[in-house]
């Protein structure tokens, strides 16, 4: 297989692991089955994990991790729930829950954009936001184009924005956006 170019969620985790210096507060904006929350809870002092699906929240809460706060609400309410107002990493794994029978419960462009916009306000200098985008479904196509439009307009003196995408796969292959906040 491949050591660097594999699953985009793993690439996102590796970037955070290697380039976020202060690992105090991490936010998983799309808890789902909890893979990003597992990563964050092992590497950050405190983690906030959002999901609108009660079942996902209850399942993860049952682990009783003492450094994870599970929030059964939309990530568009990120500012309301995070008391510190300064976080070091924010992760999104958009789309619907893998393995779920109900694929209509998916992230949507309006709440995703609101969440990214608000999240960037509370991201610490030197902090990183990762956004895994899945384009292989209707809502994902709309979400991708809104996110691309939004991130391309971020001021370059405040944020560096980079896209990771597969060049030898289908146009519908997932892609990863990395946003780093300037630390000066
Ligand atoms: C692709 S899955 C996340 C996968 C997850 N990272 C994992 O490790 O399994 C997307 C998740 O986002 C959740 N979701 C959808 N809209 C949301 C919203 N507005 N706020 C928070 N979570 C949302 C869905 O319920 C779903 O569980």
UniProtKB/TrEMBL annotation:
First and last residue of the signal peptide: none
Any single Pfam family the record assigns to this protein: rRNA_methylase
Gene3D superfamilies: Vaccinia Virus protein VP39 (3.40.50.150)
PANTHER family from the UniProt entry: S-ADENOSYL-L-METHIONINE-DEPENDENT METHYLTRANSFERASES SUPERFAMILY PROTEIN, TRNA (MNM(5)S(2)U34)-METHYLTRANSFERASE, CHLOROPLASTIC
Protein name: rRNA methylase
């Amino acid at each position: 297989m491949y050591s660097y170019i594999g699953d985009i969620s793993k690439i996102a985790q590796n970037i955070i692991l290697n380039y976020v210096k202060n690992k105090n507060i991490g936010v998983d904006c799309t808890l789902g089955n909890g893979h990003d929350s597992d990563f964050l809870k092992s590497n950050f002092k405190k983690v906030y994990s959002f999901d609108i699906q009660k079942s996902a929240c209850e399942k993860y809460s049952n682990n009783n991790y003492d450094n994870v706060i599970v929030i059964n609400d939309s990530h568009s309410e990120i500012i309301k729930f995070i008391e510190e107002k300064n976080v070091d990493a924010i992760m999104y794994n958009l789309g619907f829950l893998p393995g779920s029978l109900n694929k209509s419960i998916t992230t949507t462009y309006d709440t995703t954009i609101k969440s990214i916009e608000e999240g960037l306000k509370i991201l610490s200098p030197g902090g990183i936001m990762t956004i895994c985008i899945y384009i292989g479904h209707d809502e994902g196509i709309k979400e991708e184009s809104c996110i691309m439009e939004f991130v391309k307009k971020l001021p370059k003196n405040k944020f560096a924005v980079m896209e990771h995408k597969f060049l030898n796969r289908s146009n519908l292959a997932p892609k990863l956006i990395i946003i780093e906040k300037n630390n000066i």
